[in-house]
Design a protein that fits this description.
This protein is mostly helical. The chain has helices spanning 3-10, 46-54, 59-79, 88-100; strands at residues 21-24, 32-35. 38% of the residues lie in helices and 6% in strands.
Length: 135
Amino acid sequence: MTSHLRNQLMEGRAVLPRVGSVVQLETQHPAYAVLDPAGSPVESVTPYLRDLALNDNSPATSRSYANDLLRWFRFLWLLNVTWDKATEGEVAVIVGWLRTAPNPQRRRTRPEAPQPGSVNPRTGKRYLKAGYAPA
């Protein structure tokens, strides 16, 4: 992978391919699985998601973590790096991307919708910014 693509990703200027998926299972432990682009379970993720479920985390938490892990694996697949060979360099790429890329879940579709990050005049609270939350 070229350093040019890494830099584009880190600066939020490259689009992360939407490959792989999170699926709900018929089991409770785990309730969700992360699938690779070929539709096979990402086996390294399964024990972690099982532990989440066995430690009384809600299914919504497991689904959320599965989606976060899918995002991480999408980076690794794009960079052609296996999860056990990932280094600080790959972590820097995803952290940079998360700090700068727009979050598609926050895309405004109505023209009259408030601007991301603006203040609600009634409540005084800020609307969510267009990017990913730092927490």
